[in-house]
Amino acid sequence: QVQLVESGGGLVQPGGSLRLSCAASGSIFSFNPMGWYRQAPGKQRELVASITSGGPTNYGDSVKGRFTISTDNAKSTVYLQMNSLKPDDTAVYYCHGVLLGLGYWGQGTQVTVSS
């Protein structure tokens, strides 16, 4: 059974940092690409960042320069390092991976940026 399990969300003040983790069942080499999406209340789900097996990354315009996606293949985990967080970053963040042409989603983790 394919599973993607996120962790690391929480409440943080503006300007703070968080690191999200997504642990995949099996090897993350099998997933291509992997990425993070987010959905704020009343808004559509949007791409935050993605990474392919070859390493190229892609970021949403609103997070460029602040967020970094990376992988630890030995741990089958993909990370999202989020710095300089803003209230507009408040959303549920979802891990996504494509395996053999099928997309899989994690259950989501809440990130709230507020003072």
Characterise this structure.
By secondary structure, the protein is an all-beta fold. The chain contains no helices and 11 strands. The protein has strands at 4-7, 10-12, 18-24, 31-39, 46-51, 57-59, 67-72, 77-82, 91-99, 102-105, 109-113. The strands form 2 sheets. Strands 2, 4, 5, 6, 9, 10 and 11 form a 7-stranded mixed beta sheet that branches. Strands 1-3-8-7 form a 4-stranded antiparallel beta sheet, with no helix packed on it. A hairpin with a 5-residue loop joins strand 5 and strand 6 (57-59). The chain is globular, with a radius of gyration of 13 Å. It starts with a strand and ends with a strand. 30% of the residues are buried. The mean pLDDT is 93.
* Major pleated sheet: 7 strands, mixed
**Whole-number average pLDDT?**
93
H/E series, N to C? EEEEEEEEEEE
Tally of helical runs? 0
- Strands, count: 11
Return Rg in Å.
13 Å
Low-pLDDT residue spans: none
Tell me the structural class: mainly beta
| Strand content range | over 45%
Helix content: under 10%
What's the end-to-end separation, in Å? 40 Å
| Inertia-based shape | globular
